[in-house]
Amino acid sequence: MSEELRATRAAGVDEKLGPGLLVLVVGPSGAGKDTLLAYARARLEGRDDIRFARRRITRPTDATEDHIAVDERDFTEGVAQGRFPLHWQANGLSYALGEEVAQDIAAGRTVVANGSRAAVAEARARFARVKLVHVTAPTEVLAARIAARGRESADEVLARLKREPALDGPPDLRILNVDGIDAAGERLAAFLRGL
């Protein structure tokens, strides 16, 4: 986070991050958000005005998701120091967007991030401009995709599926991710191209 923003927040001024746009891609576990984000990133390669955020997560890295692993101590320290422009808790883990997101937003870029439905209200409070993409799939598809990752027990898969935070309003784009990756991925890429 910029020194200016830290100073503004320290002075008690509630200034939203801008002028750029934050696009939060949200939806239940197993909806295919990371797959769609990877597709859109590849289709929009070379666009300097659009950046794709790598989240910080208190989980080791693996092949299912492109994130930066942090431990709880470093995460807590980052929150206390104001390094994360957005952070949240979900599924027993801590998630955050890094300082580079605030820098890109300040530079007027569009930043696309895998987010959480539970963090949408906080994102709207912190960022001047937010668009919401909701990705979902039928419950049986979600369960099969989560189980295929091999990270969770059957009980943990069921617990994830029961967690369904409500959106604070209709999304700017809704994607039912049940067809091939090209169809759903191109919908996301086309939406981002049009911003």
UniProtKB/TrEMBL annotation:
<dbReference type="InterPro" id="IPR027417">
    <property type="entry name" value="P-loop_NTPase"/>
</dbReference>
<keyword id="KW-0808">Transferase</keyword>
<dbReference type="InterPro" id="IPR008145">
    <property type="entry name" value="GK/Ca_channel_bsu"/>
</dbReference>
<dbReference type="Pfam" id="PF13238">
    <property type="entry name" value="AAA_18"/>
</dbReference>
<keyword id="KW-0547">Nucleotide-binding</keyword>
<feature type="domain" description="Guanylate kinase/L-type calcium channel beta subunit">
    <location>
        <begin position="19"/>
        <end position="195"/>
    </location>
</feature>
<dbReference type="GO" id="GO:0033863">
    <property type="term" value="F:ribose 1,5-bisphosphate phosphokinase activity"/>
</dbReference>
<dbReference type="GO" id="GO:0005524">
    <property type="term" value="F:ATP binding"/>
</dbReference>
<dbReference type="GO" id="GO:0019634">
    <property type="term" value="P:organic phosphonate metabolic process"/>
</dbReference>
<feature type="binding site">
    <location>
        <begin position="27"/>
        <end position="34"/>
    </location>
    <ligand>
        <name>ATP</name>
    </ligand>
</feature>
<comment type="pathway">
    <text>Metabolic intermediate biosynthesis; 5-phospho-alpha-D-ribose 1-diphosphate biosynthesis; 5-phospho-alpha-D-ribose 1-diphosphate from D-ribose 5-phosphate (route II): step 3/3.</text>
</comment>
<dbReference type="GO" id="GO:0006015">
    <property type="term" value="P:5-phosphoribose 1-diphosphate biosynthetic process"/>
</dbReference>
<comment type="similarity">
    <text>Belongs to the ribose 1,5-bisphosphokinase family.</text>
</comment>
<dbReference type="InterPro" id="IPR012699">
    <property type="entry name" value="PhnN"/>
</dbReference>
<protein>
    <recommendedName>
        <fullName>Ribose 1,5-bisphosphate phosphokinase PhnN</fullName>
        <ecNumber>2.7.4.23</ecNumber>
    </recommendedName>
</protein>
<comment type="function">
    <text>Catalyzes the phosphorylation of ribose 1,5-bisphosphate to 5-phospho-D-ribosyl alpha-1-diphosphate (PRPP).</text>
</comment>
<keyword id="KW-0418">Kinase</keyword>
<keyword id="KW-0067">ATP-binding</keyword>
